[in-house]
Amino acid sequence: MANAPSDAIQRLIDVVAQLRDPTTGCPWDLEQTHASLVPYVLEEAHEVADAIRQGSDAEMKEELGDLLLQVVLHAQIAWEQQRFDLDAIADGISDKLIRRHPHVFGDAVASTSDEVRRSWEAIKLQEQAEALAGSSSPLSDRLRTKVRGLPALAGAMTISKKAAKAGFEWDDMAGVWEKVHEELDELKEAVANGDKGHAQEELGDLLFTLVNVARWCSIEPEEGLAGTNQRFLDRFSRVEAALEGDLQGRSINELEALWKQAKAAIRAEHSPTSGSD
What we know:
Layout: H1 7-19, H2 27-31, H3 38-54, H4 57-80, H5 86-99, H6 102-105, H7 113-131, H8 138-147, H9 152-165, H10 173-192, H11 196-216, H12 221-242, H13 252-269
Helix pairs in contact: 1-4, 3-4, 8-9, 9-11, 10-11, 12-13
């Protein structure tokens, strides 16, 4: 029998159940399905990641609560359909953790993080092999399952790493750069031809190849893009402030000059010698 949930968790379960009550619940919550909630799950996960990057306990606590709400809401919807509930979710992940940590819950030995990782992967691969027995494309099937819930950028990195590990790899970095230029030329051609569908495909190919560049260089594309987003907003806010919030009708030369000023000002503020005589 599962342990009784804490008062706080039980309160959340009860609140969500009330929101989904067919008679007295919230119309918006009652309209939601597993599929309709997918964007919110992804959004809340990204906001948790951002709160972690910002290092704010208050924001992290709030965003983790929003993400927990999504889990409880999905569990409530599934319970209403008599499929599974929050206890089944918790039991499932507990069983998985025990199964994949035999050095903690069994007699196996793993004294370093690397040994733990190798053991985890071996057990995971065995589980997948049992689930995919008889498949003619087991690696593709595993990857399709693994990346289906990931953001596209994270999914691309996962696919890239696994395919390379299986031997689907360039001989050197020069081959990767050659592929980047090839995909960029194909994107330019598709755009020039006005074929939006083809251009979108080529853009995806280019982005996937750039993810391979990141893998070869041992850098994280998600972190890089998140940093760029923040830097852009920091600079853009200064451009807005300089124009008192009115960007309409400004020439590109004026905006570019203000952008460069903002970039230089931020660099100066973060310079180790800033503030010194």
